[in-house]
């Protein structure tokens, strides 16, 4: 699990199909919303206190007087009947729809959160300090140890190193503690009815109904962010359909309460996105004084030997590891005056989960610290 690509909203649009939220929406990135600014590599994010409020359903009024709300109940009823007919046509049973759609009404708080987004600005260092604090590192080490058997089993199948799964888990939902308390069906119905991105959210709602039809979760237990990102991995329903797996073999893909399924689904997402289990994500590097900053781009990828020849060294001044076939790109997440990093293919794969450079940096950094690197 994004507005995934342009506007990353707190625990909101964690879907990789939206113009990036954050993320699944995901939150520090489980508690932060992020906006990517172009050349300055800065991110806009929600104030932490307001983000915390966004995780819990609340009553409230629309900030936009023209927003479609509870006053549009008759129109919503007609719209919901049309949605029901479409769902029936896609093979979702009347029994499932009767339960899932019973009592569903537009949620003013969801529209309020979608439209009212107080923003501040964090530097790269501030973001990293907030998302990868020592407390999260310490807890991540505990989680890595406590779940070693499950993570080892998942690693054997998907070849994704446990430390990266735990890092994503920690950043997305603080190791499963902050998954959101909104009804996914009601939230998605609200956003689909609202009209601004109705086609996207209507599709996500139909996917959510399909998940219920398959029996993976009960309707009253299908909770998540206000934008519909679900479970401990914050998958949007479409991502669930594509990537969630039943790792424990009980017949349900349960990313809400079953850790094996949570870990397996995250690993499957990364694996299907091109993860390389024999590589890490990247490293901080030292650049020569005459380094051409025009070479710092994810679009420019060179072998480690080529970067070595250009004077790039490890942060401690030692030579780069020369691994045949391993490619890397130079990035300045904090701007040209900030630290430089040589990032590998797995960093770019992480960007498919959440297209925020800050987020991908945080995942790699947390993974390294969790494993003691």
UniProtKB/TrEMBL annotation:
InterPro entries: Lysozyme-like_dom_sf (IPR023346), MltB-like (IPR043426), MltB_2 (IPR011970), SLT_2 (IPR031304). The keyword Membrane applies. One of its GO terms (biological process) is peptidoglycan catabolic process. Gene3D superfamilies: 1.10.530.10, Bacterial muramidase. GO terms for molecular function: peptidoglycan lytic transglycosylase activity. Keywords: Membrane, Transmembrane, Transmembrane helix. This is Transglycosylase SLT domain-containing protein. It comes from marine metagenome.
